[in-house]
Amino acid sequence: MRLLLVEDDVELGRRLSERLRGADFAVDLAKTSDEAENWPDLDKMAAIILDLGLPDGDGVDLLRNWRANRVDCPILILTARGSWQDKVEGLNAGADDFVVKPVRFEELLARLNAQFRRHMGKRENVLEHAGLRLDPLTHVVELDGEQLTLSRQEFRLLHLFIRRAGQVLPQADILENLYELEAERELNTVEVLVGRLRRKIGKDRITTLRGMGYRFGQ
């Protein structure tokens, strides 16, 4: 899944991006309000982590603009501002959660996954589909009770497929959901990745629809 991190502190942005990538997220980093507001594919983000103290504007105004323009993914504020007034303003502007710096990465990750569960209408972390169980926290994947070994990109693809089970996913959409904006993207990368995943979970679980994309499940 892709995340947009809006953080003007270069070192903090770098460290947090590395930790999130280590948790199997693809992370794009914006350093200003203008850059974040005009990000080219916000609709592909699974979530946004937003700092409020940006050099060219207030993050709360950015948040209001996003919500007014129907950006509907979970948005988590991560800021040094810790007053109750700041929290109320941020949540009323459309934030799904408000976290005060400094925060342990484990807590931030837990809060992110809690938002994903709420967004999907689920109470548990584990995603299940036709004998497959995927835990986004532990990165454990099981097929009929047997644990599978997946690469980072195979895990991301399966996570996307299970979240969008039954939907047709064009190759371009898969690329945009799995890879950061600046990453090198080639459509045959998706074909190779789907082929590897099929060999591990069973080829009949993923249907190729010529000229349209792929569908996981029915």
Keywords:
218 residues, alpha/beta, Rossmann fold, Arc Repressor Mutant, subunit A, four-stranded antiparallel beta sheet, 8 helices
Helix/strand layout:
Blueprint: E1 2-6, H1 10-22, E2 26-30, H2 33-37, E3 47-50, E4 53-54, E5 57-58, H3 59-68, E6 75-79, H4 84-92, E7 97-100, H5 105-120, E8 127-129, E9 132-135, E10 140-143, E11 146-148, H6 152-163, E12 168-169, H7 171-178, H8 187-201, E13 206-209, E14 213-216
Parallel strand pairs: 1-2, 1-3, 3-6, 6-7
Antiparallel strand pairs: 4-5, 8-9, 9-10, 10-11, 12-14, 13-14
Can you walk through the features of this model?
By secondary structure, this protein is α/β, with parallel strands linked by helices. Helix 6 crosses helix 8 and helix 7 (171-178) crosses helix 8. The chain is 40% helix and 23% strand. The chain has 2 domains: 2-120, Response regulator (Rossmann fold, 3-Layer(aba) Sandwich), CATH 3.40.50; 127-216, Arc Repressor Mutant, subunit A, CATH 1.10.10.10. It is built from 8 helices and 14 strands.
Task: Give a concise summary.
The protein is of the alpha/beta class. It starts with a strand and ends with a strand.
Summed up, the helix count is: 8
Report Rg: 18 Å
The main sheet comes to:
5 strands, parallel
CATH structural fold name of the largest domain: Rossmann fold
Count the beta strands: 14
Distance between the termini: 22 Å
As a percent range, the share of strand residues is 15-25%
Low-confidence stretches: none
Question: Can you give the helix content as a percent range?
Answer: 40-55%
Order of helices and strands: EHEHEEEHEHEHEEEEHEHHEE
Going by CATH, what is the homologous superfamily of the largest domain? Answer: Response regulator
Please, how many domains? 2
Mean pLDDT: 90
**Which shape, going by the Cα principal axes?**
globular
Q: Structural class of the secondary structure composition?
A: alpha/beta
CATH class (first level) name of the largest domain? Alpha Beta
Give the CATH architecture of the largest domain. 3-Layer(aba) Sandwich
